[in-house]
Amino acid sequence: MNTILFDLDGSLLPLREDEFIRIYFAGLSKRMLALGYERDRFIAALWRGITAMRANDGRATNEEVFWRVFPALLGSTRAELEEVFLDYYREDFPATKAAAFPTPYAQKCINLLKDKGYRLVLATNPLFPPLATYQRIRWAGLDPEDFLLVTTIDNSRYCKPNPKYYEDILATVNATPAESLMVGNDAEEDMAAAALGCATYLLTDYLINEKNADISSFRHGRMADFYKFVLNLPDVGK
């Protein structure tokens, strides 16, 4: 094993997901209301755009799928609305940090793995642009440069839990499933990497297990346990 993929939200960056979504939608809605869009119609269109990305069949990037679906439902265009979103991410998205509570184990694990020579990937569900994803990485006490690849809306053609999302990552970083470990807190979305033959580690501090799946087959533990696991990993690539 020489390549480790990490989920971000709820894993490297613990957060209250409901609170994050509330702040996020409220901030975007405020900007759209100022442009004359009706709130409920905007929220419905936004969810449709997100759903379309989650169902992406790989023929376009998630970014292209979102901007094909979302503005059409509002009778608008990407050219009219994209800058509104980018302004929000630059100016108001930092308010969602109130829903996050960083753990020191994130920095400890990443620094130790880098010292040991592991190749690291930030495998967060690619529903956000780099501008928003990089902010959340920094809130976790990390740097985008810590990772060989960060999956974002513009460089990804699939979403979790589609195994093709993980296939694309491994192809991009030239790794095989046998060389790879996926670490995350979602029993469905993150552990889907196991279908390819990747090793997995399910973080249970902020476990998401909406289908009440049996997690006994996955190596699992709290972030503190994962740090102990990292301590015992051998050096590679040196």
Structural write-up:
Helix 6 links the parallel strand 2 and strand 3 (149-150). It is built from 8 helices and 6 strands. The protein folds into 2 domains: 3-15 and 101-231, Rossmann fold (3-Layer(aba) Sandwich), CATH 3.40.50; 17-97. The two termini are 14 Å apart. It has 238 residues and is an alpha/beta fold.
Name the structural class.
alpha/beta
Through-space gap between termini: 14 Å
Major β-sheet profile: 6 strands, parallel
What fraction of the residues are assigned to beta strands by DSSP? Answer: 5-15%
CATH architecture of the largest domain: 3-Layer(aba) Sandwich
The pLDDT mean sits at: 97
| E-strand count | 6
The helix count comes to 8
Q: What is the C-level CATH assignment of the largest domain?
A: Alpha Beta
Fill in the keyword field for this structure:
single chain; 238 residues; alpha/beta; Rossmann fold; 2 domains; 6-stranded parallel β-sheet; 8 helices; globular
Question: Quick summary of this structure?
Answer:
With about 240 residues, the protein is an alpha/beta fold.
Question: Strands, helices and their partners?
Answer:
Elements: E1 3-6, H1 17-34, H2 39-54, H3 62-69, H4 78-91, H5 104-115, E2 119-122, H6 130-139, E3 149-150, H7 163-173, E4 180-184, E5 199-203, E6 219-221, H8 223-231
Parallel strand pairs: 1-2, 1-4, 2-3, 4-5, 5-6
Helix pairs in contact: 2-3, 5-8
